[in-house]
Structures are given as structure tokens and as C-alpha cells.
What does this fold into?
Amino acid sequence: MLAENDSFKPTEEDNAYFLSEVAKATQTGVYTLNFKDELFFVDSIGRSILNIPPNLKLSVNEVEQLFAKTGSVEKLLQTCLKGDSFKEEMQMISFDNEEIWMHFTGKPKYDKSSNIIGIRGVFTSIDMFVRDRLAQKRHSRIIEAQNDRLLHFAHIVSHNLRSHSSNLELTLELFNDVADDERNKVFYSYLDEISNNLSATLKHLNQVVTVNSQSSSLTLIDINATTHRILDYYKKELDDIDAAVQIDFKKMPFIEYVPSFFESILDTLISNAIQYRDADKTLHIKLSTKLKKNKKLFIIKDNGRGIDLKKYGSEIFKLDESMNKINGESKDLGLFLVKNQIEALGGDIVVESKPGDGTSITIKF
It folds into this structure.
């Protein structure tokens, strides 16, 4: 074995090189904040991670813009001013508006009199690991949602079809014992109604199955053209009630989606806005799109009757508690199918509403 001697010890230059290479390999930047001049220093690696121009001096207010969550810098400052250190997973925003997850640490910086004069620390990009974790959570939610759909599907099969089948069998048994012609007509009408109900249920079953079978057929959709096509279908109803429809798709004119899903979703939402309008008001419907922190949003608002979400919030997307049933009218798949179609493609739907104050529905793609 070679004996340890001074010639084999790393020099200061070696140590600086090793630290620099480790920082580059792990994408770790260092920073300091001086309270006196309120300037924020970030080293070259940190600037590279966040795409901060090399010679740009950052004030505390400008640093705030680098954090996705408002008030993050203030929170960290207050922690260090108390003499405490911090370790946080935080989402930062680079100068080219890219969101990056960081492991952010900081400690108070003291002068010779033990006064806190600033903060210093490091931040390491953990974006790949956090996004993988979030993706796994999303996939888990999608699987859970698919399981829920299967349970609802089983509910349809076990309850609705069995009910129609039993009614049909009972009616046929009674029909065999009937001889009077007038009574025959009555039973024929019963059979016709039961047959129609059975056909409708089978149609709904097919719609639910279609959600899973078509979820990979994505196409670039012109939102404006598709919306006008649906509105044209309801033109007479809208004209009859003098409804006002406002459209603003400038922020997101196109979306890559399953065309049949998008049309079905629009049809249901517009139909609901018409059906559940407030008879004492002129119906106003506003349809718009937004881009919010890389999220694509489609929003439809109306000034209709509204929904008591405290009472019905957990029910409106369920198969057996649809919008129609909540409003005391005959029911179909309604928002149950809409939610299934949206979630099948990894999206989400949020409802905001108050009785008498209209409804706002936001679809997150």
C-alpha cells in the first residue's frame, strides 16, 4: 500500500474543482441575500438552472417572481430572521417561464456581533424526481377513477337492466292471461315503454364503454368552430328565450382532444345551462378558454338557478344523483358521462355554484 503523504492530498484548486463538478452534476446553485443592500446573489450554476442573465442584479422583489407560490420569499425571510434554518421543496419559475421543482435550503448569516445580516443557502433541481412522483399520483388517480367507472358500470348492469328485464317478464306473463282487446292495447303500450327504456339504457352503456375505447384517438380541434356547431343545434331554443351567449377563445383557440368527447361535453354543458336557467332572468352564457401556469382551461358560466353545493356537491357527478335528479326532473347520464370523458384523458372538472347565483364549470385539460 502507498503511504499517505502530502503529495497525494487534494490542493485548494482540486477542492474547488471537485465542488464545482458536484454542483454541476447535481444541478445545485448557491445564493446569498444581503439585507443591507437587499441584493440577491446567485452563482453561475444557479443562474444557468434558472436561465438568469449573467450580469443581472436581482432585488428581493425581483426574486419573488422566481417563485411559483406568492409569498414564498417573505415566508423564508421570516424564518431566518427568527434565527431558524429551512429546507423546502418549492416550485420556481425560470426567466424563460419554465416551472422547475427545487430542494431549497437556507440559514441565517451573522456578523461578528451575532446580528443577522442576511441569508445564504443552496438550491438543487429535483424537477425530474418530483414530476415522476406527480405523474405516478396522476396515474394512480386515473386508475382509481377507472375503477369507479367500472363500479358504476356494474351498477347499471345489475340494477337498470335487471329492473327492465323483470318488468318485461312480468308484463309478458300478465299479457298471456289477457283476452280483452282494449286491455291488449294497454299492455302493448307498457311493452313499448319498457322496450324504449331498455334501449336507452343500452345506449348509455355503450357511451360509457366508448369513453375507454376512444380515449387514445386525439385530434386537433377548432374550439370556436365546434362550439358554434353545438350552439347552432340549440339556436331555436336560445332565440326563443332571448339568451345571450358570449365567446372568448383567444387564449386557447385549439385543443388536442377526442372530437366526440369534446362535442358531447359541450352539448351537455350548454344543454344544462338552457335547461336549468332562471325563468325570471335573461339567460347569459359565457364560454372562454384560459392558459394558467401551463394548464389549459375551458370555462362555461351561466346565470341560471345554481346548485347548493353544500347539499349536492358530492352527488352531481354520480350516476344515480345526476343534475336532472337534483333539480327534480327526469335523469340521464348528464355530468356523470362528462366527468368520465374528461378523467379518461387525465383531465379534471370543477363546479362553482350557489342557489340563485348561476354556475361556473371549469374543465382542466
